[in-house]
Amino acid sequence: MKKFRTLFVSALVLTMTVALCGCGGDKAGEGDAITVGIPQDIEDSLDPHTAVAAGTREVLFNVFEGLLKPDSNGDLKPAVASEYSIEDEGKTYTFKLRDGITFHNGAAVTADDVIASIERCADTSNGEPLVAAFSNIADIVKTDDKTVTIHLTEADTDFLCNLTTAIIPADNIDNAASNPIGTGPYMYVSRSPQENIILKRYDGYWGEKAYIENVTFKVISNPDTIVMNLEGGSVDLFPRVTTAQAAQLSDNFEIKEGTMNLVQALYLNNAVKPFDDERVRQALCYAVDPKEIMDYAFEGRGSEIGSSMFPSFGKYFMPELNDTYNQDIEKAKALLTEAGYPDGFEFSIKVPSNYTQHVDTAQILKEEFKKIGVTANIELIEWSSWLSDVYSGREYEGTVIGVDASTLSPRALLGRFVSDAGNNFVNFSDPEYDAAFKAAVSSTDDAVQTENYKKCEKILADKAANVYIQDPAELVAINKKFTGYEFYPVYAQDISKIRLAK
Fold it and tell me: In angstroms, how far is CA 320 from the centroid of its own chain?
């Protein structure tokens, strides 16, 4: 199971192998190719700074690195930086760059590249910064070509979590989307839209070299063909297969089980009727039984959640919120009547068609809502349409999706519900929430931070910002000729650890 052994410095988000040739072994280079199946193409951007989809980030995890990067235990480890120090009670961060580290084009990584990358993500000329926490940066100072110091306006003991932001060449920023260049164990080769993304091992990598030389991420948008692709040998590994798909696979495959580290929910557009009425949102919450959903769609797997936090976040997770809305059909009906909908209402749930687990969840929700007189119409849409219409355009009533944490910090999950947050796609707005979140991120006292993050979670639950369901179990199907797969506490597929089984 995915776990954090060390948390915080937690959990990202938003929602992913050509047969291997060569002799078995466990030295870098002893492998030729692997094909990993993914349910959607990279629709947003190959630019690591502007990519928002979790499925994009899990592919780019292999190509890009920040000053720091998470390991499979949830610890932040030096990457582009070899060491760092924190001074002035969390207001000053100094990083020493790793000796000999180079980009995939062979150019040495310098302080100028680090400064250009961070300044780009801190820029507010076009609105909010690409990384919200970077708005707290007062200045960045280059001591020499290998040393960078970041001064913050206000102390932030959680700032390190944001320094997983990719470092890219200063002279390639304008071409980052068309010519991705990073420092990771794999370098970008090509992309065929709706077909694949191809990577190749970077033999100049500063750290432990990847075992397998060539990686193809194959787009399989039709979930009905996943088993066929696996058994037919065109795919070697597929993350997030369903229990039904896992049951169909032969003994040639190992099924590994972890957790997705996602907040799966029916996300509601709080700015449109009838969901601008808290009582209506609460009624939907009372109509739903998360355990029923997990039993029917996931064979009982998964962890119930009652707010925008999942169990891997340890001290921040509040299991008691799971009981905020225990299923109560009569109470749900009474709330609808009070809100002016005694006969219920009709609404649409937009679901990305390539995510079977979300489609199955929506189908069960539809049946549960019938009990309170509410008709839910499921509209299956392409992933690209979900990104443009639902996430960016906010043109929807309800949607079933899983939201991840893009960094090892609770603010990655909770920051999206601040009233003016650019990624607040549910249009939640509450002054008390905004104040609690501000108190959390501005405090250097861990107890105060934790208290206020939990206050945020309780507000989301009490005001029924969304209909929270579960952190789904993650089933990974991998051909037994491979070994070394590891789960991560963020959305990532680390191909560099995978190798031929002996």
Answer: 24
